[in-house]
Design brief:
The chain is α/β, with parallel strands linked by helices. It is built from 10 helices and 14 strands. The chain has helices at 19-32, 86-95, 118-134, 190-200, 203-209, 225-232, 247-250, 283-295, 313-327, 360-367, and strands at residues 8-13, 38-40, 47-52, 69-78, 104-107, 148-155, 158-164, 215-219, 236-240, 255-258, 272-277, 299-307, 334-339, 347-354. A 7-stranded mixed β-sheet has the order 2-3-1-4-7-6-5. Strands 10-9-8-11-12-14-13 form a 7-stranded mixed β-sheet, sandwiched between helices. Helix 4 (190-200) packs across helix 6 (225-232). It is elongated and about 65 Å long. The structure holds S-adenosylmethionine (SAM). Residues 186-187, 189-190, 219-226, 240-243, 261-263, 278-281 line the site of S-adenosylmethionine (SAM).
């Protein structure tokens, strides 16, 4: 678990090209906790190795905007015999006196080169699981409260062994939640909001917060992918955009479309439960607008996208989130989470959820998220 310099090493996945942003983010969090660390990565690899002598201060995956997965590094293995890659893995785990893992994931970082390994990783999973179970190194059924083994193939000749811990991992291979595009949705953007709902909420809290009793304003709504997700949950939506909205959404009777500027529009009845916003606009302006809606009580909570600049991406995100936290400090128990989702491109998705504005049973449900 430690390397020769007695530093722990974490392996974190991100979108290819965002390695410097993730590295800067990890360094920043550690520095604010009087810790220290540094990253090594190849640009475009979709992965960083992060070394620190203070692993306990490492931020949780939930705190990292640019990380899709966070793993603790164990070792690197080279395979000299392509017909048996399982024995070296078993030998290493036996040498550690390893406990049973609750699951095993065979994966590769999300980059162009490693894509050639996808089929192999899938195929290799089956015999590896069988061998691990036979050697009492993996539980019979998946156990989420235990550590999981991650076997990361960088080529056919070698892999890195890592593990993830309960409550600090993405349960998906490569940290990617793959969603099927709903055939009747008006745009692929719909997957951004669908993924956000999966990532920010568990099933129970999502049901409580997005249902037929809830209303929303969708700024920058056209052609209607985000509105589609809300309508699917029987919510009433005011969809604001100068573009055209899908007629299928209008036919539901749940949508009111206004061709208006998102920066000056106000909700018809004075307030709604949710403000969602996917406007391609300056991210500082968008975050300020969201804060204004919540402070004024025009919306209780918000999910919105921030388009990232070409440079200083982490710096920009840090500044905006810190200003947002400052503005929300009078709102009791406000949850602010941000994530660079798989379906986000050069943008991130942010949740602002002031718990105090919801009834007690909803608050209890959110606390368990
Ligand atoms: N969320 C939409 C969906 O799922 O179909 C896609 C939104 S698209 C990425 C961005 C939209 O923002 C465009 O349709 C654009 O017209 C709208 N937009 C940009 N600036 C706006 C503004 N100031 N007011 C209203 N809409 C705006």
């Amino acid at each position: 678990m430690s390397n020769l310099n007695d530093e722990a090493c974490f392996v974190c996945f991100c979108r290819s090209g965002y390695e410097p942003d993730l590295a800067a983010e990890c360094e920043y969090h550690l520095a604010t906790r009087n810790g220290y660390g540094y990253a090594k990565y190849e640009k475009g690899s979709g992965c960083i190795a992060f070394y620190t002598p203070t692993p306990a201060l490492m931020p949780k995956l939930k705190e990292l905007v640019f990380a899709r997965q966070k793993l603790s590094f164990l070792t690197t293995l080279s395979f000299h015999d392509a017909s048996d890659r399982i024995t070296p893995i078993l030998e290493f785990l036996h040498s550690l006196n390893s406990m049973e893992f609750g699951n095993v994931i065979v994966e590769h970082a999300d980059n162009e080169q490693a894509k050639t390994l996808a089929k192999f990783c899938k195929k290799f999973t089956v015999p590896l699981r069988a061998a691990l179970r036979k050697n009492v190194l993996q539980t019979r059924v998946q156990q989420d409260d235990k550590s999981w083994l991650h076997v990361i193939f960088d080529s056919f000749d070698g892999c890195r062994l890592c593990f993830s811990t309960a409550n600090d991992r993405s349960p998906y291979a490569q940290g990617i939640l793959r969603l099927k595009f709903p055939a009747s949705a008006p745009s692929r953007s719909t997957l951004k909001l669908e993924e956000a709902l999966h990532v920010f909420f568990n099933k129970e809290s999502e049901k409580r917060l997005f249902n037929e009793n809830m209303s929303a304003v969708d700024l920058g709504a056209c052609p209607g992918g985000w509105t589609y997700q809300l309508v699917k949950r029987n919510m009433r939506v005011e969809a604001i955009d100068n573009g055209d909205i899908a007629t299928t959404l209008m036919d539901t009777g749940l949508v009111m479309h206004a061709k208006a500027d998102g920066f000056t529009y106000r909700p018809v009845s004075g307030h709604v439960d949710w403000l969602v916003c996917d406007m391609i606009e300056n991210p500082y302006r968008v975050a300020e607008l969201v804060a204004q809606w919540i402070q004024q009580g025009w919306a209780k909570a918000s999910i919105f996208n921030l388009k990232l600049p070409m440079k200083r991406r982490f710096e920009t995100v840090k500044e905006i989130l810190s200003a947002l936290r400052n503005k929300m400090r009078d709102k009791s128990g406000t949850i602010i989470e941000a994530k660079h989702l798989y379906h986000d491109r050069d943008e991130i998705t942010v949740l602002v959820l002031p718990m105090g504005d919801f009834d007690e049973s909803t608050q209890n449900c959110i606390k368990k998220m």
